[in-house]
Design brief:
Layout lengths: L3 E10 L3 H15 L3 E14 L2 E14 L6
Antiparallel strand pairs: 1-3, 2-3
C-alpha cells in the first residue's frame, strides 16, 4: 500500500497557462520526490493596460511518500 500527499503550488508564465503548468510541475519535481499527478484548481490572468502580462495557475500536486523501514 502506498500513501500520497498533496501540496498546493502557484505558478506563473508570461506565455500561456500550459507553460505555467509545465514550469510548476518541473519546479515541484525538484523539491518533491515521486510526483505522480496534479490537478489545476484555478487559472487567472494578470492584465496591464488591457493586455495579458501573466498567466497564473493554482495546482494541487500529488506525490507518493517513500516507504520507511522500521
Amino acid at each position: 500500500m502506498s500513501i500520497a500527499k498533496v501540496s498546493e503550488i502557484i505558478s506563473s508564465s508570461p506565455k500561456s497557462f500550459q507553460d505555467a503548468i509545465e514550469k510548476g510541475i518541473e519546479r515541484a519535481n525538484k523539491t518533491l520526490e515521486n510526483v505522480s499527478g496534479a490537478w489545476v484548481k484555478d487559472q487567472k490572468v494578470d492584465v496591464v493596460d488591457g493586455k495579458i502580462v501573466a498567466y497564473r495557475v493554482v495546482m494541487k500536486v500529488t506525490f507518493v511518500l517513500k516507504e520507511t523501514i522500521s
